[in-house]
Fold:
Amino acid sequence: MLLQQTGCSRDDGGDDVDTMEQAQEYGYIGRKEDYLKRLRRIEGQARGLQRMVEEEQYCIDILTQVSAMTKALQSVALGLLEEHMSHCLVQAAAAGGPAAEVKVKEASEAIARLVRS
Amino acid sequence: MLLQQTGCSRDDGGDDVDTMEQAQEYGYIGRKEDYLKRLRRIEGQARGLQRMVEEEQYCIDILTQVSAMTKALQSVALGLLEEHMSHCLVQAAAAGGPAAEVKVKEASEAIARLVRS
Amino acid sequence: MLLQQTGCSRDDGGDDVDTMEQAQEYGYIGRKEDYLKRLRRIEGQARGLQRMVEEEQYCIDILTQVSAMTKALQSVALGLLEEHMSHCLVQAAAAGGPAAEVKVKEASEAIARLVRS
Amino acid sequence: MLLQQTGCSRDDGGDDVDTMEQAQEYGYIGRKEDYLKRLRRIEGQARGLQRMVEEEQYCIDILTQVSAMTKALQSVALGLLEEHMSHCLVQAAAAGGPAAEVKVKEASEAIARLVRS
Structure:
């Protein structure tokens, strides 16, 4: 039941009210508003880049903005990952069984994609 | 006059019609529509991420989308950089003088920011 | 006792023979020879780069080798990290208590350094 | 003849003494000793990592060293690239003709490999 929390697996039933309430305290869900705010800012950066291209601004300045936006995205990813590990992974490990192994493999693949992108 | 083209420096006068026409053939400006399309798609990815967080989707799946978006951004940056070098930098070098040195330094710093972000 | 294994913490007593034997099955230690082989190959790449510079080879070719070496290093890092998570982190989580939190924080910081380098 | 300098192309004849002397002033060749020193230090880092694995040190500490080594390698790459652009690329552009285009394409591909590694 503990593993049933929102955000910690792909197919949450999660209709149970108690579980939902509990879920608010785990994973990135507990900081949902913060992540939404950061992603809205990133969306704004994407619009800002379009404006720069539209106005034919200097390409080096556009590249500087692309780097800033990439850093903001990476920072979101690192935050999500830390919360994933400290909640979903730790919980799966505490519960025992093969679930932890699956979570580690998934997290490792996600990290590899981040490092290589 | 050749260096006066849009996108190749920070302070374009660029009001001259001939220069504007010519500019269409140089730098990223010639592929402006392509870049705008890609940046609109990236903006859409930022909105998609907000939806995923809103719906409390699985964090690993969100991370996969963040990696895809980062790759799309990097690809835009690499394209802009190549066009900057093949037009602005090559042109400054052909014109001779200290302008080329400045362009190389700027480009190097932009590359360092990309590599480290 | 389980947490006392080699490679999973900074200050291992680890003199106990039983613990040492057990340690062979955990973390990167179990694949020590594989990691040593990969690191020796990376050391060879560093020497190869010196030879290329010594012989004044084409800089683009040197850069290609630097990228290959960076990828090899990253691959070692990703392997170490996966084994760290699947052994040290999972074990700390299973044991309960604040140790897991510390391990997650350490791992997150290591991941951030990898992503940003 | 100017383009014939060492380090600026793959197939240097470069036997001519005058050209060789001149080459000392261009590209990374002029800072050859500095690059060799940095690469020797990187080779030392690769040996240090082997020692850490040999001694079964804490994996997080090994990862910290891997990140430091990756940064050192990237810094070498960025230096080589800047010198390549400021000498080989600028020179090819000044000479005119299709050589500059080839150099830009090569440099762009090298940058893409660096950004993605």
Observations:
- The radius of gyration of chain A is 18 Å.
- Confidence is low (pLDDT under 50) at residues 14-25 of chain A.
- The first helix of chain A runs from residue 17 to 23.
- Chain A touches chain B through 53 residues (CB under 8 Å).
